Amino acid sequence: MPTVKGISPQSASLSTESPLSAGLYVVGTPIGNLGDLSFRAVAVLRGSAVIACEDTRVTGNLLRRFAVDRPLVAYHEHNEREVAPLIAEKIVAGEAVALASDAGTPTISDPGFRLVRECRRRRLPVFAVPGPCAAIAALSASGLPTDAFLFLGFPPSKTIARENFLRQYGEFPHTLIFHESCHRIEKFLISLVAVFGEERVIAVARELTKLHETWHVGPLGVVHGDLLRFPRRGEFTILVAPKNFIL
Ligand code: SAM
């Protein structure tokens, strides 16, 4: 097999005939568009002894679409302390375990960190099977600076805490990235205006990769006004440009 620079034929292989070596495989799954599940992700899911996932119904539905039939084990924020060591024991016993979340990359505002840390503490192999990630997808298509950025996840839900939190980043010289739910997007934008002012450039990415993907990019005052005219349903990722950035 010809080699691509830096990629061994072994690691580039999509074959499911040779069993996966023991380890934890952190698998990115679609954030909306099923076409974004990689060939390698499907091969790894098929080749795993067990798939640890946030919600067995959600991942079960995805797996059925790709004819993957493997046992699922629930691994979520309410049981991860107990389940992480049990999964690590499976890897110690020589099994390949895949980790998936409901959508996107596990551990990024999703469960998985404790399991990965548990494996690293025990010196067990952990492999990345990269795939969609809303924060990176939004950044890459936003037009805001990408050379350096800070991912801040979900902001605090209470107004005072949220605005105090945001104030820490008023002078931050790189792009900020946030997740926010559709129920709080409007309050979040009001807080952004209060802290960063109407001239600050932002990008709001809604329903990335889905049929109704929508973008609003421009000064906060304008984007806020625009958003009020659109349905505030679906999933939102918000990026804030550094001060004085001109689109
Ligand atoms: N681990 C996921 C990832 O890698 O993208 C993120 C999971 S986090 C619980 C869910 C949040 O990600 C949503 O509330 C939203 O802020 C963002 N998100 C997920 N899918 C999205 C999409 N299709 N478009 C825009 N934002 C999205």
What does this molecule look like?
This protein is α/β, with parallel strands linked by helices and 247 residues long. It folds into two domains: 9-129, Cobalt-precorrin-4 Transmethylase, domain 1 (3-Layer(aba) Sandwich); 134-240, 2-Layer Sandwich (Methyltransferase, Cobalt-precorrin-4 Transmethylase, Domain 2), CATH 3.30.950. The chain is built from nine helices and ten strands. The protein has helices at 9-12, 39-47, 56-65, 80-92, 113-121, 134-142, 159-167, 185-196, 220-228; strands at residues 23-27, 50-53, 72-74, 96-100, 126-129, 149-151, 175-180, 201-206, 214-219, 236-240. It has a five-stranded parallel beta sheet, sandwiched between helices. Helix 7 (159-167) links the parallel strand 6 (149-151) and strand 7 (175-180). The radius of gyration is 20 Å and the shape is elongated. Mean pLDDT is 93; it is low at 1-17. It binds S-adenosylmethionine. The site of S-adenosylmethionine (SAM) has 22 residues, from strand 7 and strand 10.
